[in-house]
Predict the structure.
Amino acid sequence: MKKTLATILCAGIAAFLNAANVELVLPEQATETEKAAADELAVHLQLSMGTRPAVVSEKKKGSGQKIYIGNTASAKAKGIHTEKMGREEWRICSLNPQELIIAGGEPRGTIYGVYEFLERNLDTIWMDVWYTHIKKVQKLEWPEKWDITGKPSFEVRALWGYFVPENLPQQRFMARNRNTFYTRQVDPKSEVYRLGTRSVWGRPNFCHVYYNYTKSLPADSPILSWSEHDKKRIKAINAVGPGQVCYSNPETVKWFVKKMKEYIAEDRKTGTPVEWPIYYNMMKNDNHLECECPGCRELVKKYGSQNGAQLSFTNAVAREIGKEYPEIILMHDVYGKNCMYPKNIKAEKNVMLQVALGHSVPERLRDCYSSWNSPYNRSTKKLMEDWFALSTQRSIWDYWTDCWNKNYYPAENTEAIIENLKLYNDLNVQWMFTQCGASSKCSFYALRVWIGLRFMNHAELDGEKETERFMNAYYEEAAPAMIKLLKYQRACQKKLKMTIHDYSVESRYDLDDEFFKTTDRLFAEAEKAVAGKPVILERIANERVPVDRARIERYKLLKPDPELTREKLLQRYVKNYTRRIKRYDRKDHQIQNLKDLKLFCAGIRANIPELTGFSPEAVIKDYAWPYLVTGDYQNPLVKDPEAFGGNAVIPKGKIGDDITFLVYDWGMKKYMTRRCMIPAGALPQDEKFHWYSIGRTQIDMKSQLVMSSSWYLRCKLDSAVTNPEEFNNVVTIYIRAKVQGPKFVKNSEKQNFFMVDRVVVCRADKDLVHPTEQLPVPEELKGKKVLAELSGTSMPVLKTADPNSFIGCAVQVKKENIWVVGNRSSLVLRYTDLPKDGKYRLYKLGPVEFTSSVGLRIGKNYVPLKLYGNEYKSGTRFEIWISAAAAEDSTISVDRIFLVKLNQNN
């Protein structure tokens, strides 16, 4: 039935009259935060009812509905005394259908009561910085017998994300969702201060403060940490470091106590006692270069860990501060490599332990996409609980996004966030801080932020109901499809046998053809439901960003889609990601992310020639420059017409004096290969690209190929980990590199460069066809089955230049023999048996059986051989042929090692 104009006008007039008849009543001497609470309620009632209600004092109140805000006479008459309430404690009390009291403690209790009223009574959701959802009503109603009180689940609630504290809309969004913490001290002139937020931490900073305490000290001060390696004190130049302080020196305690008292005095020059910060940070500089003086080493021994030594220092400062300021809490960090549980020590009663057990960095043993109750996190959960047993003052520094670029791809963790917040609440954690960055990249970011803040405030809520509440408000008619998408992504993640951190996007088998077919269908369903609503369509497009990024990188692994070419997919990704970057990221992050996006697109569009010279069934992974340049250190590109795709990568910083390759595993903290090096004097002099092999190694998800002596140029090998059951991930790695300039090439006039343009990882058991630039097999071995040659970079020992060697370099030892070890027979090539003319000859050692411990010892250098027999049955016999030379100066040199298979009847 059509509504008449008169009906519409009557409805509008009724709404106006209802809103106009609502008064927000303040006490006669209202505080600034009580006034702000009234303003906040007036703003939102205007959004709900269409007209802004009047804000009056109690003496000037009129007729109609009244909401008493703060420490009013009506509140006191009801027995509500705000001066006896906590800083964030609130109460909402209905007197009758016409009168309601909202009151709370200073400085945030009353305004939090207003937010509770809006959330509970008008279904208000502050969804993100730009949009608020609120129920439209013509008449304001509340339950007749409504008397509730409460306070947030955590004393301090802090989320670091995309927001910038100085940005007014962002300040309001965070304050309305009860975020109480900013990474800078709160300016009394700021909006968040007006809304009740105060500095919860004292000077000088909220983390990594040792630098602030020591920056005025001389460089040789005994308060600074001692470096045994450098034989001197190390003074930090910023909050990263280098160096820390000396925990065992009593003067360090005295200095910190003196400086902290100065900071406390400065903090208390303004504001009232209820506004003064009570938390003062004692977090060390952001590095692991601890003091190595004898006194500090004794402390580490006494307490069983480095953090035990640090805690003894924090305790000592806390005892002195507590004598004058018993209300002040010192925050002690349990962070990263320094998180080992101590013995024989507990935290002082005024020391809060801030446990930060990290994200996907192996030494932190944490999967931020799973809850603490996940099998992946149980050992770390036990460590967290053990630490909390040392103090009743407890803080969490959490991670809700990954710091190592897994955020680019579909990965959803709001269920884990909710479960973990409930756990922290059960553990009586008072201070809750989390890093939740990557706002322009990751899946369901707006939900992640809102649900996190929501459960920091109300840990007791139902996670599924609150999630659906947000999704229905945020996506409107598209909500059913987007909820299905959310749940589908969760289900796909649960298919993984390991954590998301353990997979590259290419090895994530949950991101298969069915995944993209299903997500395409759900996106189309959602977009159809809100056609003509650009704001909601933009929110849906945000979720395409991580899905499309994964699809682009997995494009060759998926079935071709004639309607969605890679170029069309890339254009859609660029459009949506660029908009997200400009919407969410602060300026410096925008510049870097747009730069990275441009580089990524150039790499995807680069015309990388097909790989030749390798056995197709052997190649597991082929990394060209687009992948190599996007590592942790953003190594620079150089244009080179001879490079694959026209670009190569050079290591950041100083160029070494040799070519150095190795594989290191961050999970096991173990070198999977020793340093594979060719000295400058043995490098090719043609200034062209050449293939270098580092021989065989075993890899897993946390293995990295290091390609520079500085370790800046690295290649993560997680996407080369495929099928451990089939070949145990034993691989051969080839690096295509080039050197130029006088540092490497005699009489060169070019600029000094070491550059890499391609890395190829092959299955060792199928690596039968090698690159075309392999060395020729010696005449003595022609016709024999040569299993492998170890020379140059594939011989994992340090080498020196040798012009007499066929390859220009060799491993050299003096007065040593060459032994086969780990075998039943004792095989040795003795220096005394070799001609002393410096000429290289082939020598045979054998027969030898493949075992797990077989290797070759050249002096103190050990060359393991076990991986070269991985595709043969145990007990297979082979010979070792060694190219060696001896000189009169007692030097024996080895430049080539050949493994030759014997027939079974030999």
Q: What stands out?
A: The first strand starts at residue 22 and ends at 26. The first helix runs from residue 5 to 20.
